Amino acid sequence: MGCAFSFSAESRFRNGPRSSMPKFRNFKERGEWVEAQFIAEALGRGYTVLKPWGDSQPFDVALNFGNRVVRVQVKSTSYRVGTGYRCQIGTNYNGRRYTPDMLDFFAAYVVPQRTWYLIPAWLLFNGGQNPTGPMLFPMQPFKNDCYYCEVYKEAWGLLRPKPEKREPRAR
User: Mapping DSSP to helix (H, G, I), strand (E, B) and coil, where does residue 46 land?
Assistant: First the structure.
């Protein structure tokens, strides 16, 4: 008989006394952990979270706003390049490429910095079918016209759909 959840006080989430970065056996395990972090953060901010069963959907999490559902693909990175981090978003765990009609947002978590980026999916598709992996600079001060994804750092409010414009009723 298997178990659905496993909680442990083992030290596998630490690389040693010098590092506070989580350690995982594989990328699938890290992805599950990051999804759980996203869900906890979203719930803490008052969002209603929907989690698809299994890996058959092209998104990891959805946020329910009554008549609107926002589809979010959760990604993570610890891949340091210069003064930033590169986040790979080209394919999902099953090797399928994302397309613009599958997602509304990418939620990218920079693991060593414990920082979220909530990036509209359309931005990373650049008008085409293959999304580009953004460079994220959580340690750099914000500069206008530089680091195009920095405006999406901890931008949780963007996940809420804009109110629909209601036309006045005709009399």
Answer: coil
Stated pTM of the model: 0.79
Contact 73, 122 (CB under 8 A): no
pLDDT bin (cut points 50, 70, 90) of residue 141 is: low
d(CA 114, CA 101): 29
> What does the pLDDT read at residue 15?
41
DSSP state of 91: B
pLDDT tens for each residue of 50-63: 999 988 888 999 99
DSSP annotation string for 146-160:
SSTTGGGBT-GGGGS
For residues 136 and 107, is the Cβ–Cβ distance under 8 A? no
CB 87 within 8 A of CB 134: yes
Alpha-carbon separation of residue 92 from 57, 98, 114, 118 (angstroms) = 10, 7, 22, 18
Cite the DSSP H helix spans in 80-169: 121-125
Q: Per residue in 128-167, is it b (16+ CB within 10 Å) or e — as a string?
A: eeebebbbbbbeeeeeeeebebbebbebeeebeeeeeeee
**Cβ neighbours for 152, distance < 8 A, ≥ 6 positions apart:** 117, 118, 119, 120, 158
